[in-house]
Amino acid sequence: MKKTLVAMFALVAFTGTAFAVDVIDMKKNVKFPHKKHVEMLKDCKKCHEKGPGKIADFGKDWAHKTCKGCHTTLKKGPTSCKDCHKQ
Ligand code: HEC
Ligand code: HEC
Ligand code: HEC
Predict the structure, then answer these.
(1) Counting atoms of ligand 1 from 1, which one is nearest the CA of 41?
(2) How many angstroms is it from 71 CA to the middle of ligand 3?
(3) Which among 5, 17, 63, 65 is most buried, taking Cβ atoms within 10 Å?
(4) Which residues contact 49 (CB under 8 A, 6 or more apart)?
(5) In whole angstroms, what is the distance from residue 12 CA to residue 79 CA?
(6) Are 35 and 22 in contact (CB under 8 A)?
């Protein structure tokens, strides 16, 4: 019983940390609302193919393909330079 409880707390603490990444500041004034995306997409694998955490090939090319790609496909979310790169 005690062990189960400890395991449960560990799990809550872990997912709690992951969900707690609220807004991530990126280069060129991009503010990425991570938590909002987690809540609406409910699928980490949409962006984290290899599990949560840093994304190995993250950068301009990844972002313009993945972020803009999804916004274009779903017709939701910013697709113009100035809407992602706030002044
Ligand atoms: C819409 C895309 C997207 C979704 C969906 C998403 N993430 Fe992320 N997440 C990112 C990006 C982009 C980063 C920043 C990656 C980097 O800097 O290498 C990130 C970073 C993280 C980090 C590391 C934060 C840090 O700075 O150390 C964690 C942990 C994480 N995500 C967990 C999750 C979990 C868990 C889920 C699912 C519940 C999830 N993410 C869903 C895009 C996403
Ligand atoms: C798999 C789909 C998907 C991916 C990948 C994705 N987004 Fe989004 N994003 C959405 C959707 C859907 C919305 C629309 C939310 C709404 O209209 O309420 C959105 C909205 C946004 C918004 C506007 C939020 C707001 O409060 O109005 C920003 C900024 C944004 N995305 C940035 C990014 C960035 C930066 C990345 C990549 C790191 C990214 N998105 C990746 C689906 C995605
Ligand atoms: C859907 C959001 C989105 C749109 C639309 C978008 N970008 Fe980006 N852009 C990003 C993200 C996210 C990064 C990566 C930031 C990082 O590496 O921290 C990025 C990176 C960049 C970089 C590299 C910055 C650096 O210092 O490495 C340049 C330059 C850039 N974008 C220009 C543009 C231009 C020009 C447009 C319009 C044609 C555009 N972006 C449209 C989200 C977007």
Answers:
(1) 5
(2) 14
(3) 63
(4) none
(5) 35
(6) yes
Of all atoms in ligand 3, which is nearest to the CA of residue 27? Answer: 18
List, for residues 18-52, the tens digit of each pLDDT value: 555 899 999 999 999 999 999 999 999 999 999 88
Q: Please identify, by atom number, the ligand 3 atom nearest to the C-alpha of residue 68.
A: 1
The pTM assigned to this predicted structure is 0.90
Residue listed under structure tokens 């004034």: 29
Torsion sign, CA atoms 17, 38, 79, 61 = positive
- Which CATH class name applies to 22-84? alpha beta
